[in-house]
Amino acid sequence: MTSAERAEFEEALASARVAIRVGEMVREAREAAGVGQRELARRMSTSQAAVARLEAGGTRAKLTTLQKAATALGLELTIDLAPTH
């Protein structure tokens, strides 16, 4: 693997990890609110399948999608940038 290929792989891996963590956070918030995927989808004006993909980390969520999810769950969306370790 060339250094360019390795860098591309590392970037894709980091992106996938973020998508998975964001999905976990949405699922945890939904479950804490006692809301099912279908109900969250209805509140967000989207499909249950889209919510499932979001929660599984199968899609890179746009900020607008995350804002819709937060609003639908009665939460505030916050963004945090932290130093890497």
Instruction: Please identify which CATH superfamily we are dealing with.
Output: lambda repressor-like DNA-binding domains
The rough form would be described as: elongated
Number of helices: 4
Structural class, by secondary structure, is mainly alpha
Just give the CATH class.
Answer: Mainly Alpha
The average pLDDT score comes to 95
Summarize the helix and strand pattern as letters: HHHH
DSSP strand count: 0
User: How many separate structural domains?
Assistant: 1
Second CATH tier, the architecture = Orthogonal Bundle
Q: What is the distance, rounded to the nearest whole angstrom, between the alpha carbons of the first and last residues? A: 25 Å
Rg over CA atoms, rounded to whole Å, is: 15 Å
List the defining traits of the structure above.
434 Repressor (Amino-terminal Domain)
What does this structure look like?
Helices cover 67% and strands 0% of the residues. The mean pLDDT is 95. The protein has helices at 3-32, 37-44, 48-56, 63-72. Helix 1 (3-32) packs across helix 3 (48-56) and helix 2 crosses helix 3 (48-56). The chain is mainly α and 85 residues long. It is built from four helices and no strands.
Question: Summary?
Answer:
The chain has 85 residues and is an all-alpha fold.
